[in-house]
Amino acid sequence: MAKKTAAKKQDIQPLVGKELLNKIKSLSHLSKREKAKECGYEIDGRVNLSSFMSAILEAKGISLDGEVNGDGRGREATYRVKVHKNGQIVIGATYTEKMELQTGDEFEIKLGYKHIHLVQITDDA
């Protein structure tokens, strides 16, 4: 019976993409090695952390090989923006998602010398 279990485990493909990221979120209580194991990155009793971490980066659209992201989504997120011809600066959904901002959230704009601070207005008053 142990041979059947081992054979079944080898047939399991490691998780990738959104499926991998969703699984990792559900395993937040586990260590990195245990997460890798649960996501299918164990071969012959050895956890392949390198492949696991590479798969996470790839799932997030980050390439360490200098290759362009092949999902057709265009530019990747950076912490730099440019002023558009119409004078606007677009922050982008990546950052609003990271900050867990919702439609309708308001900010106060505070201008400094060569910088802008956005201060979120909360209803704590």
Automatic annotation (TrEMBL):
UniProt KW keywords: DNA-binding
Alphabetized InterPro entries for the sequence: AbrB-like (IPR027360), SpoVT-AbrB_dom (IPR007159), SpoVT-AbrB_sf (IPR037914)
GO CC field: protein-DNA complex
Pfam families: AbrB-like
KW tRNA-binding (keyword) present: no
Occurrences of domain SpoVT-AbrB (ranges): 78-123
GO molecular function: DNA-binding transcription repressor activity; transcription cis-regulatory region binding
Stated name of the protein: SpoVT-AbrB domain-containing protein
